[in-house]
Amino acid sequence: MKQSKMLIPTLKETPADADTLSHQWLMRAGFIRQNFSGVYSYLPLGKRVLDKIERIIREEMDAIGANELLMPAMQSADLWKESGRWDKMGAELMRLHDRHEREFVLGPTHEEVVTSMIRDEVKSYKKLPLTLYQIQTKFRDERRPRFGLLRGREFIMKDAYSFHDSDESLDTYYEEMYDAYSRIFTRLGLNFRAVIADSGAMGGKDTHEFMALSEIGEDTIAFSSVSDYAANIEMAKVPDYYQSPNEEPKPLEKVATPNQRTMEEVANYLDHDLDQGLKSLLFNVDEEFVLTVTRGDHEVNEIKLKHHLNADEVTLATEDQTQDVLGAYFGSIGPIGVKNDVKIIGDFAVRAVSNATCGANEDGYHFINVNPSRDFAEIEFADIRFIKEGDPSPDGQGVIQFAEGIEIGQVFKLGQFYADKLGASILNDQGKAQTVTMGCYGIGVTRTMAAIVEQFNDDRGITWPTQVAPYQVHLLVINSKNEEQRTLGDKLYQQLLEEGFEVLYDDRKERAGVKFADSDLIGIPNRITVGKKASDGIVEYKDRQTNDQSELHESDINAFLKSRMDR
């Protein structure tokens, strides 16, 4: 394609609201333009990159027997009410009415639609397993869209759904999809990790996220220093056994701690280490109050608490609620003398403390010399805290380290969560009705494009991997008014096209500096520059990722570029 015929509006300056590298470079290099907050147009170069990402996805989906279809973006609210997610999704669900005041949603995902389709069209176990997928625009009413394509109101997603007649069939296919995702992200050139994750509003239990490592990632990955173990920090398990200190329990005593509200303030005031304090927080769990207890150096993990209690909603109680229930405000509450109707859950680490400190449920007072086995009448112990760097890896190999990551894909075992609610059943081999079992698998296509740019850039622009670059070769003619340069440029353009290369030909009547700057911004992997040595058939080659440069004779260009494509 001749660059003079394309819409590539590059920018010299970084837009003021572009707060990540991917947002900055995709805007400056003319790949995207913002229509309004969280909604973007994908310009010709951006569309070419998306097409290449989608092609790789399709190849791997087809390889494991998935069927591509296209479902409507606008969905009936009735299906969402049937599944229970009409209320559960909250304000992020894009809702609308037609002229007859019927309710609809703009789909953030398609579990309801695809499950109802299977309910209506598949009646026998003989049709299963079956996998359907689509690549489509999704919608989410984000409160605060940010980070360019990483958190928007409108985005492109690949979503797939598998249907099975047994858990064993789902388990087998889940591994196939997991492997396919690993191949996809490897082919895209990404540095990524597959991590144990939480299913959130999707339902189901077993799930993995695929995370592209990035300093601006919104998720923290906990991974082993020596093994392949990796999990979202929300899901990483911690030990259930801790060595108790070898010391005699001292008598329980209540002491004044005036104006000491935080764990650090109390520890300093009473002159002990932070891990000798016990932190208590009151939560509202499905309209019932639950008091959690952790060591002072640990943090409560609400996701773990929610899973442990099999709850729908977990929120931190307000200060007024805490005062009403426990008789004290934040900073002075604890598990001793709590009313019987308040459930108490302590983290496993609490079980091993000795002569510790906790709030006395009286403002400005704490208990010292607290020993859980003696002083806590009714307490249940569980894994309810966030893992920390340096903790033992849950697989018993090495210790935990942290990294930041961008979620680019996720695979779920939904089980019968949606099929039960929407009545999707089949006749099994015994002729009896049986609810189908489901899996769900998503890839954020536009997020993936942004994640690639986060990992592939330098101080001049994007450095695309060959497999997703908008073009394979960027051909520049320094002086389009020079007949020898223009003639050689035209000749090489036709030659490269005939050899099957994807070529962007910069034939514009622009200064050399402008052409070089735009070329670096756009980031096409291989650059051929026709300049002063055109009369000798000599051109300059530049590798965009390494910025290495060399001279080539026109007769060697085809073979040289083919060798680059095979890397």
From TrEMBL:
It catalyses: tRNA(Pro) + L-proline + ATP = L-prolyl-tRNA(Pro) + AMP + diphosphate. Keywords: Aminoacyl-tRNA synthetase, ATP-binding, Cytoplasm, Ligase, Nucleotide-binding, Protein biosynthesis. GO terms for cellular component: cytosol. Residues 38-465 form the Aminoacyl-transfer RNA synthetases class-II family profile domain. It comes from the Bacteria. Its main location: cytoplasm. One of its GO terms (molecular function) is proline-tRNA ligase activity. Coiled coil: none annotated. The keyword ATP-binding applies. GO terms for biological process: prolyl-tRNA aminoacylation. It is found in: Cytoplasm. Catalyzes the attachment of proline to tRNA(Pro) in a two-step reaction: proline is first activated by ATP to form Pro-AMP and then transferred to the acceptor end of tRNA(Pro). As ProRS can inadvertently accommodate and process non-cognate amino acids such as alanine and cysteine, to avoid such errors it has two additional distinct editing activities against alanine. One activity is designated as 'pretransfer' editing and involves the tRNA(Pro)-independent hydrolysis of activated Ala-AMP. NCBIfam families: PRK09194.1, proS_fam_II. This is Proline--tRNA ligase.
